[in-house]
Amino acid sequence: xxxxxxxxxxxxxxxxxxxxxxxxxxxxxxxxxxxxxxxxxxxxxxxxxxxxxxxxxxxxxxxxxxxxxxxxxxxxxxxxxxxxxxxxxxxxxxxxxxxxxxxxxxxxxxxxxxxxxxxxxxxxxxxxxxxxxxxxxxxxxxxxxxxxxxxxxxxxxxxxxxxxxxxxxxxxxxxxxxxxxxxxxxxxxxxxxxxxxxxxxxxxxxxxxxxxxxxxxxxxxxxxxxxxxxxxxxxxxxxxxxxxxxxxxxxxxxxxxxxxxxxxxxxxxxxxxxxxxxxxxxxxxxxxxxxxxxxxxxxxxxxxxxxxxxxxxxxxxxxxxxxxxxxxxxxxxxxxxxxxxxxxxxxxxxxxxxxxxxxxxxxxxxxxxxxxxxxxxxxxxxxxxxxxxxxxxxxxxxxxxxxxxxxxxxxxxxxxxxxxxxxxxxxxxxxxxxxxxxxxxxxxxxxxxxxxxxxxxxxxxxxxxxxxxxxxxxxxxxxxxxxxxxxxxxxxxxxxxxxxxxxxxxxxxxxxxxxxxxxxxxxxxxxxxxxxxxxxxxxxxxxxxxxxxxxxxxxxxxxxxxxxxxxxxxxxxxxxxxxxxxxxxxxxx
Length: 589
Hints:
With 589 residues, the protein is an alpha+beta fold.
């Protein structure tokens, strides 16, 4: 008993030597308060003095021991909790103070949150689909956390498709290097073993967390004593979830550790992967990302920090959550850079190019404008946003990102145009800004055409681009006498991880008629994308049909065009694209 007391005294003394202020004493029940102005009862004061005397005595005994340097404390996380953490739990993590827990909980859910939204976010683990056809995808059982899962899914695909060596030699590559093409698709997604998928998941989580921590640190959150549970207890927790209905609930069970090297963070994530696979896994990863970024920094990223990150009334992940996981900053907009309105007022967008990108149906509806940073990521993988859900679009060949002469020139002029577009993505600029674009991109318009464009007092992008297409190249235009510049044909895949019924017909419809419940499963759809030249898709289809007798051109002719909301998203990246697929149309809801 005495040795146990000495150990506690030594631990308390060690904490005191590592902090500027004495740490708050560990206690099993709250300090008793009286109605007096002192705020401390005589009994509480006596206990406090006793603890201070014991700590001093313990420190004196510690000084008499051989000089062994203590294990250094982990670098304080950017949430500035070093002075307010209560101590180290048995799971090896630090504990948030009640104030910080309240800040975190309110930031995510707001001051008032329904039980249905909490249920969605505390019943979604990070697990791969058991279906062989969609085995590389993370499955979603609850609405709401899809933004977290889709962003993480995009990074997982990056490792599975393009970095197989990083996840083990036993992983058959879906992107195999060749002399002609950098990557060639394999025949089956189901050939990847579970171990390789798990390693891809762990590396993806680590990369995102370090990105949120400015590549200096990663904070890995866990729940109390999760490492001390035996296998049966862990299974029970995974089956039942943990009750998190308030900031105080979160404060009781949440622990975190800060890592400054990727190797140590990878080991931690790999060792606690079952916690992220549990029903609270998606929420736990979001908390890890927020702590890695820093709660105060997250609030500074946002345009309106008073709104919760999980939106009411349906509990969807906000664009700020998705952007945090894609680019490391919790900004609310998808355009490049920031939009300055003068007078100190501005909106924040994406400040840098990203590894995996983002497309949204809302752009096709003219509600926003996705900038080139998200639209043209390093790897051909995009999170796709609809009004209420997030899915993933990806290609096996990075050549789909390569730009021909038409696309390069369009991208150059568009970047200059968007940098001066103060309309919130409306696609028009002032006459003064137009003159700056013309000078920057070396466009030499005839005086008559210049006056015609500027006559309205503002310049619309679509009208300007039509002028550029008809302008000779020696004048800075891109007039194409062949009419075939910009043509592309390639395949992409779309993954919707939500496990829900799809009873549009066929076998599933017959199953319903027979009284059985249709299988609930995620969906993976292969799409063939044809990007015609500068003509409209209708003109291109007409031209292709008229040349059908030419055997040499039959292979290059586009398949009959099909339409779904996903096609509208794809056209925000390849504006003249037509798409076709087999079976039911891909769903982005």
